[in-house]
Amino acid sequence: MAIFSLPFEVRDYELDFQGIVNNSVYLNYLEHTRHKFMYERGIDMTGLHNRGIDLVVTRIEMDYKLSLRSRDQFKVTVEVYPEGNLRIVFSQQIIRLPDEKLILTAKTTGVCLRNGKPARPGDVPELQKFGI
Amino acid sequence: MAIFSLPFEVRDYELDFQGIVNNSVYLNYLEHTRHKFMYERGIDMTGLHNRGIDLVVTRIEMDYKLSLRSRDQFKVTVEVYPEGNLRIVFSQQIIRLPDEKLILTAKTTGVCLRNGKPARPGDVPELQKFGI
Amino acid sequence: MAIFSLPFEVRDYELDFQGIVNNSVYLNYLEHTRHKFMYERGIDMTGLHNRGIDLVVTRIEMDYKLSLRSRDQFKVTVEVYPEGNLRIVFSQQIIRLPDEKLILTAKTTGVCLRNGKPARPGDVPELQKFGI
Amino acid sequence: MAIFSLPFEVRDYELDFQGIVNNSVYLNYLEHTRHKFMYERGIDMTGLHNRGIDLVVTRIEMDYKLSLRSRDQFKVTVEVYPEGNLRIVFSQQIIRLPDEKLILTAKTTGVCLRNGKPARPGDVPELQKFGI
Fold first, then answer.
1. Cα–Cα dist C70/A106, whole Å
2. Which residue, of B33, B90, C2, C16, has the fewest CB within 10 Å?
């Protein structure tokens, strides 16, 4: 199991008419953190795509605890672990700073496609860098 | 239980570098359909907000079955039902047209806040139009 | 000169904390209308990209006259004409419905790249469908 | 004349099907930098809005020189100056790092509204912090 964390700050264009970050924007924060986590391990999502390999999300669960507002500082964490032979799970949290209040928890499940067909992550050399 | 359906078409700015609709965009489709469904019942989300009433999402579950691509036609459905005294659940599907392939299922759970404090949806006259 | 028009409705996720459509969203409306206009002429932007041909925007000018708000209906128009040998200009308007108030005017200038190098639009068979 | 600069990194969800940052996303970068610039001078856009004061964009000009791609580092600069009695102009550049290549130049013109009516920026105490 690996842990990674990335700092963020709310940008005003991410707010909706209620003055809080729109629900869909949290998926952007979560995805960017997963990609940065992978890049740090040498897994380049856009490069993999050009070689016919895509990590595709099959399920997302998100629990919203508190809303983020204009200029809030926060961090997004990610842990990764396998689920069965085919699935990879990313467990993530969004934590406001500096008060460490939990904003959101998320579980994202993905599968690996090679040329459009399911592949075991363990059989894809580029993904062995996950260490799972 | 109420049923509502709204037609959409993929717009190219919604595609990501993989040429498929980005995961976060589906939340926009789902939210827009919920709002249109509520407006049709006389529930105006931006008007409610100006009177101190907000429907806030507490949990989202999404299962991605297939990807949408450039120019795909699809519809988004919504059903609504109560869960306990405080929660409202929106059950939604995204269905590609004309082949009726299931693209995504989603369950969104929300609570009602009046001046920032939880309120029973049944006690908020504006929400009785849900008929739940 | 060709004219094309597409109807839209404001979606609440496009509003910002001021309760009006965020400035950047107008570029999405404009782009979607240009792409639909081209598709109708048999010019498929994502298909062209896969054959090494990209239409790339080099300049955008937008004049904001009025703001769009929740649930506003509007249309986006587009005309296209050449500018010199290399540039294509899209002249667009956003017009609120049904009162026909002018919301925004925009001029978008683009060039054609074939395998990353500038090409005369007139030398690209796929673009001759513009009729310019 | 004041100068301010903010560092950014491209996030993969900002890429379009061409693998480059979508045109509309540059407006987000520019707006966020303007807001951070104003916050640093004690001008809180969301706070002003709650007191009936809005800075509204009336014109945007952007010249796209080069495209940003996955993981590119860049900075956005802003200078501000008055234009006549009513208008404020923000002159901005996007510069890729570390090679200092110019990606985009932009000129954004805005006016100040107090309770929906035009006001001279010089008559709005909260805006005198611009020092223009």
1. 30
2. C2
